[in-house]
User: Fold this.
Amino acid sequence: DVQMTQSPSSLSASVGDRVTITCRASQYISSYLNWFQKKPGTAPRLLIYAASTLQSGVPSRFSASESGTDFTLTISSLQPEDFATYYCQQSYSAPFTFGPGTTVDV
Amino acid sequence: QVQLVESGGGVVQPGRSLRLSCTASGFTFNDYALHWVRQSPGKGLEWLAVISFNGHTTYYADSVRGRFTISRDNSKDTLFLHMSSLGAEDTAVYFCARARRSVELSSIGDYWGQGTLVTVSS
Assistant:
């Protein structure tokens, strides 16, 4: 099975900050990497699919990139509504595992 | 508009079984694969299972394989998750989610249910 790791597990940031979250796959997954945002009491929200494609309706301050088995999610200027937990997920091979999450708080 | 509505959650005793349902509307149900994902209290998201658009292909997480069964009734636009031999570690909010594109199996899109809480407790 593909194992996903994320770093950091949590970070403190302020509105306007640039935030970067890293996800690493334990083996080759091509570009089959998705990023989700999760807030308490709500369903996960797809932000990015295919490693770097912005989902429709997601603000352009979100971006993502890949380098081999390393993937990065960047929020260029953190907004109040962006405080949440972010998860990467591989969709290359079943089981389609999520990373452990990165919590962005104040 | 696309809607997914889970039901069937509740309190269940350890070792017992429970069946969750996810009723869909607003799209051609039998064109899309569907997933189950859960989140235990204070924990992260855990992918559980996927079923192809026609029900012929299923995959499971190691943690539930052999205990959980995903199925669908395309005549009723409904997805199911039959859970057996439940333990405390299965306490979670369970979400159903639609694949991002029709026919595609693996990628979860942006349509999720609101979740249903399953509590395993004596």
